[in-house]
Queue: 3 jobs
Job 1
Amino acid sequence: MNIRQLRYFYLSACTGSFSGAARAENVSVQAVSKAIIELEQELGGSLFARDGRRAVLTPLGSALVEPARAAVESFDAVPVTATSFLHGGSASRSDYRLALVTPPFAKHELICAALGRLISRMMKAKVTVRLALGADAMRDLETGLLDAVFTVGPLRDQRCTCLPIGNVSIGMFMGQKHPLKRKRIITFDDLEPYPVLHNELIDGFNETILNTCLRRGLSSPVVEISTDEEVADFLEQQQGYILGVYLKALDIKPLAAMHRIDPADAPPVPVCMVTLKERQNAAYDRLNHFVCNEFRSLKHLLSE
């Protein structure tokens, strides 16, 4: 067993495919597949149930994701710490602490951990990524617990710089019994009879996808939802839907599936990096440069 095998296994688990791991590591899919087969032979059991282009974790694979993550992150921390020490940096804290301003979503812990690890390697600096709600994110920015947050849609706050770094398409979550579930692309006219979820903690913070769509003519009834139990009832019993970033990887099966909103009604919205104006320096310039240049490749990896 070696760190390369564990790295390929962990990235395949995070992205749901060997091709996603191969793209992240800049190697061939065959190299990833060979390494994982060797690891399975050494462990004595299958880590993935191959399903076409997808790689679905087996019970053994699921049990080993967290130990693999810890092993890979510990290994990667050695050169990062050495670089920080040799250049006079502090090895006692993360170089960059980032947050996605979003409620919890399917596989968010895996995705945040994978993003943190990938950005750490690409920037050669320790990076951690987590989720945060709007008000919590702003508080943590002000107290220094976060260096930057990422919003889907701009944030208008005089204390902050809001830098657009790329665009994402708009989609919707709907329950498995929703009348529109067989439509490939959904229009605003299709959605008019059905209620859409609003959450003040999220939609009261920035120009979210919901706010953008309402401004562009979405006329669905808006329903305030605040608990997971209400969300389940909203999707299953009320034929409601939730707007979000269009990524099939975010399907919440069997509860809900992701469908695309017609771009003619809902064009792509910007993902923005938000930082406090008073704390911007050379380190922030480096982060700005990185996210502006690498957003497309990171988005493509998540799409895998």
Note: The first strand starts at residue 48 and ends at 51.
Job 2
Amino acid sequence: MSRLGIFVDRKTLASAEQLQALIRCRDVAEEMGHTTEFIFPVDIRKIPAMDALFIRARTDPMNVTYVASRMAESAGIPVIDDPSSIRICSDKVNMYSRLMNAGVALPKTLFLPRRDLSETRAEEIFAELGSPLVVKEPSTSFSLRVEKVGSAAGFLQVAHRFFKLSDWIVVQQYVESMYDWRVGVLSGEFLYACKYIIPGSTFKIQASVNGHIVYCGVESVAREQVPPRVLQLGVEAAKAVGSGLYGVDIKNGGRNACVIEVNDNPSLESGEDDQYPRVYHEILHYLLET
């Protein structure tokens, strides 16, 4: 019997869906013969007494989840997400550089330093990548600080705002789609797949529209119904980042499919696992029994 620590915070428990997912994870662990303990930030000192740690709170190198991950790693405890994955996925320049070096298909992408920002450079980027463009601040998560721009003036406005937070921004070719594929990968192996249905009022999986938060729909998809190229890209992209648990976002399903992002700490509370009842079993087996 092993002890699993599930690291959570108040935001983790903010919705019934998140709470139900945590309970499902706990129940699977107990069915496998293990015990679980929910660890809040105030109880972070308990981590070295666990046999494995599963982080189910927002990961960022600047918050306590990263401290928890580092504590587990320092104690020799298997942890999802590991500190390296958190650092890479929280820095889009680092993440996209790794994907490029691994030859993973991406939209046309470039990194713009603050010193190169000018109206002339903005016009050159539109000529190179097309219109519209997607501009990202490198530490973005949950589609925050990701904006679509259609003119050099709009680009400069967004870039100036993002450069208040970072010395670099990511600029990408815009890829039109009604949904994103999300491929879950664990230890370099396919885990699950779903479609994130993009709301008609935005181009992102989560956005503020007229003062209201709009979320995408989630449709779990059986493996045999997922285009082979999407499966391949998901695994390739995850391996370029590390060997933990990742959710890889992919546009389109044919030969022109491309990776939009690799997420550590992917959500599992919105029905991503409906077609994959063994998702938690496989995650816990990786953490506790390998």
Note: The mean pLDDT is 91.
Job 3
Amino acid sequence: MSEDDDFSGHGEIRDAVRDLCSGFDDSYWLDLDRRSAYPGDFVGALTEAGFLAALIPEAYGGSGLPLSAAAAIMEEIQLSGCNGAACHAQMYIMGVLLRHGSDEQKSRYLPKIASGELRLQAFAVTEPESGTDTASIRTTAKRDGDRYVIQGQKIWTSRAEHSDLMLLLARTSPMDSGPKRTDGLSVLLLDMREAPGLTIRPIRTMMNHATTEVFFDGVEIPAGNLIGEEGKGFRYLLSGLNAERILIGAECIGDARWFIAKAVAYANQRVVFGRPIGQNQGIQFPIARAYAETEAAALMVAKAARLFDAGETPGAEANMAKMLAADASWHAADMCVQTHGGFGFAEEYGIERKFRETRLYQVAPISTNLILTYIAEHVLGLPRSY
């Protein structure tokens, strides 16, 4: 399978994304990496070109494209050496608003998100004490007349400093208020431009990911900004996870193919002991294995996207797609560094940056072990382990 066959019918989109990304070369990303700066120009160009509004219906100013098209966009961004993590959340976060928001909310926000007037890039879910145990979050949203008052803290909320709007998962009733631990969680839309009591602190990490911790000290949100029904927020969160997994998987496929192309080019031109190193099976075999693993993972990503676009709920396929693609990209990254030897660690080659960036997806947005527990329980019928 070639890189252009994964999501058939999107060749023109791929060409357009590739052309846009050509204006943001390694030097652009190296400069940002050194300064831990956000790629505002890159995100602005994607917005102006309409790529970040791909999944927003035409009625709200978007393109109304299927998820497979969005996956092609994200894969091509990574394959071009750029970093879609700066903006990928808008692709799947707005799905919560689109699927569960009121007509008034969608009419008010989606057109401005599509045009770029507003950015919806942040979803505040994880907390320091709860981690992936979402039911245990402590941030509260207490109803007070025509508003909710928010108290609490979130962590690993990426792009909060570069977003106008935030989706917030908070507890509107105690954990023991319903039959399930996840009952009583609600999703609210916060306009961060008008939020006294909101404090955002950046977290420096191994990769330039613009992630933060967020503190809420009496932050007020209009009651009309509740998404869907009170207490049903966890269900709304789950409804968007399949799209998230598939898009992240597509990004990882793009990364893996970038690493493989770099390794192949270097192995062909690097001469040691009078011959190109690519002539040695010790170099060939790891590259070939990475290629095979990547193409197999790409098939699962494509299958999950097709099922999603057909209106199905591909929980198992989306999770497997993310896991297999993340593994493929990480193995390809390791192979690429090994192929380049010492040069793989040099900033100017761009490999060490992408190496750090793709390592993230072994952990986020869901760890490999949690995906394995999902498969064990929900696909294989084994007892729940946690």
Note: The chain has eleven helices and ten strands.
